[in-house]
């Protein structure tokens, strides 16, 4: 009995004096994981799951209520032969070209003017950025009044100078011009502010050196400003391409209540509006998912094209340019030698 008590007392003493084991690395990181877990939970529910489900849905025929039917690649094979889908691609690309290209050029000019302005610079920045934070629905309704066939301000101006009115919202090309004008007005100031931030990051010593070398303002702009702004130009080109290929609200507000989501002759039928009409108008959710993934492929393709045209390695560009100049010089010298 005494021996048992001695052993118990020794065990208790050892337990009391034994040092606590340090927590494992996962237990130590548990508060940090708990702090960031809301983001990952929300992303999994509202981001990752819809993306994965849309991939699965694109291989099924489903009306949103009944049983899902596996159809494999039939949605995509029909997509390649669907004339309405190709028309939506053509319309989207035309609207993108006549809106994005002038928009980026105008934004670069505005940014350069703001960079050289000495008075009211902050006021002009705010004024050019206001269209971007204005409701796109409200802006589209205003432009719908401006381009109205019968009572539009633009047609009133044309008739006041002796010209005939134009059926802007009835002709396919007029619809594209109207939508492109909305995009141009809304996003030019936004891109101008981004260009302005890039211009302000360029060191003034570069311009001083160019001025001392006798470079004209035009040469300075094209040979110094534009090359140094190439990363910013690439960013605006890619983001504008992504936004341009996802045009939807403008055509929906202009023609959503007319029964034809793309307007007369489907002149304003874009890829996203066709997706919306297929999924929520005709209840072909599987086909709408296939259109969405086709749009994703187009966005990736055009982003790569922008990267190849605008981005890339500057040293590689300079080396190729120098090689072409040397080859041209050798060819000219050879022609002169053969002539003599």
Structural class by secondary-structure content: mainly alpha
The named CATH superfamily = MetI-like
What is the CATH class designation? Mainly Alpha
CATH topology: MetI-like fold
The percent range for strand residues is under 5%
Order of helices and strands: HHEEHHHHHHHHHHHHH
Strands in their spatial order, largest beta sheet: 1-2
Average pLDDT confidence is 83
Number of helices: 15
**CATH 2nd-level architecture:** Orthogonal Bundle
Termini separation? 125 Å
Low-confidence stretches: 10-18
Largest sheet properties: 2 strands, antiparallel
Rg, Cα atoms, Å? 31 Å
Bin the helical content: over 70%
The count of domains is 1
Shape: globular
Number of strands: 2
Region (Disordered): 1-23
Family: Belongs to the binding-protein-dependent transport system permease family.
Biased composition (Polar residues): 1-16
Transmembrane segments: 33-59, 93-114, 126-147, 187-207, 228-248, 285-307
What is the element layout, followed by pairings?
Blueprint: H1 2-17, H2 25-57, E1 60-61, E2 69-70, H3 74-81, H4 83-116, H5 121-133, H6 136-146, H7 153-160, H8 172-200, H9 204-212, H10 217-228, H11 230-245, H12 249-255, H13 271-281, H14 285-310, H15 314-339
Antiparallel strand pairs: 1-2
Helix pairs in contact: 4-8, 4-11, 4-13, 5-8, 6-8, 6-12, 8-11, 11-14, 13-14
């Amino acid at each position: 009995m005494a021996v048992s008590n001695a052993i118990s007392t020794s065990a208790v003493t050892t337990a009391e004096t034994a040092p606590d084991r340090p927590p494992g690395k996962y237990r130590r990181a548990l508060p940090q994981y708990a702090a960031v877990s809301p983001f990952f939970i929300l992303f999994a529910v509202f981001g990752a799951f819809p993306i994965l489900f849309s991939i699965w849905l694109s291989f099924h025929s489903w009306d949103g209520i009944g049983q899902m039917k596996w159809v494999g690649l039939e949605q995509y094979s029909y997509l390649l032969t669907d004339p309405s889908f190709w028309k939506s691609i053509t319309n989207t690309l035309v609207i993108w070209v006549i809106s994005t290209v002038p928009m980026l050029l105008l934004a670069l000019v505005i940014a350069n003017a703001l960079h050289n302005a000495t008075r009211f610079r902050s006021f002009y920045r705010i004024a050019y950025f206001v269209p971007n934070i204005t409701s796109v629905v409200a802006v589209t309704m205003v432009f719908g009044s401006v381009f109205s066939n019968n009572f539009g301000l633009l047609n009133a101006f044309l008739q006041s100078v002796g010209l005939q009115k134009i059926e802007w919202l009835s002709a396919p090309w007029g619809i594209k011009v109207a939508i492109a004008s909305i995009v141009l007005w809304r996003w030019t100031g936004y891109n101008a502010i981004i260009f302005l931030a890039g211009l302000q990051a360029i060191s003034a010593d570069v311009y001083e050196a160019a001025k001392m070398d006798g470079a004209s303002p035009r040469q300075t702009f094209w040979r110094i400003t534009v090359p140094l702004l190439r990363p910013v130009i690439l960013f605006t080109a890619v983001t504008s391409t992504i936004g341009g290929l996802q045009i939807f609200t403008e055509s929906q507000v202009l023609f959503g209540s007319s029964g034809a989501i793309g307007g007369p002759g489907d002149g304003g039928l874009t890829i996203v509006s066709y997706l919306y009409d297929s999924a929520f108008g005709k209840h072909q959710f599987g086909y709408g998912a296939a259109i969405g993934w086709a749009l994703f492929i187009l966005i990736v393709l055009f982003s790569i094209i922008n990267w190849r045209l605008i981005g890339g390695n500057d040293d590689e560009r300079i080396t190729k340019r120098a090689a072409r100049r040397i080859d041209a010089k050798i060819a000219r010298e050879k022609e002169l030698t053969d002539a003599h």
